[in-house]
Specification:
This protein has no helices and 6 strands. The protein is mainly beta. It has one domain: predicted glycosyltransferase like domains (Thrombin, subunit H, Beta Barrel). A hairpin with a 2-residue loop joins β5 and β6.
Length: about 100
């Protein structure tokens, strides 16, 4: 399974954005968001919700996570998220160290 086939909608009670996974691990992942905004949409340590869709299989899941870090590079934000366990839908994306 490739990360390019995994679409993610991130949201809290106030904001929503579309993102893509660039890395997945047992403890969390990195999401990339194309954005011209100068500040991240979500506050660090805030609880966010991920609606994850595997476009290849049509499977989707709803996951709760925490935003650990947000880094702006050029015209995109990279969000480092943490969860209690990697969702089964994403297990195939975990890269061996």
């Amino acid at each position: 399974m490739s990360t390019k086939h995994i679409q993610v909608i991130c949201h809290d009670h106030n904001s929503v954005l579309a993102a893509s996974f660039v890395h997945v691990s047992e403890s969390g992942g990195e999401l990339v968001v194309k954005s011209e905004m100068s500040d991240p949409v979500f506050a660090i340590k805030s609880k966010i919700f991920l609606d994850i869709l595997d476009e290849t299989t049509g499977q989707s899941i709803h996951v709760q996570a925490r935003l650990a870090q947000a880094v702006r590079q050029e015209k995109q934000w990279t969000y480092l998220i943490r969860w209690t366990a990697c969702p089964a839908l994403l297990k195939g994306l975990i890269q061996a160290a």
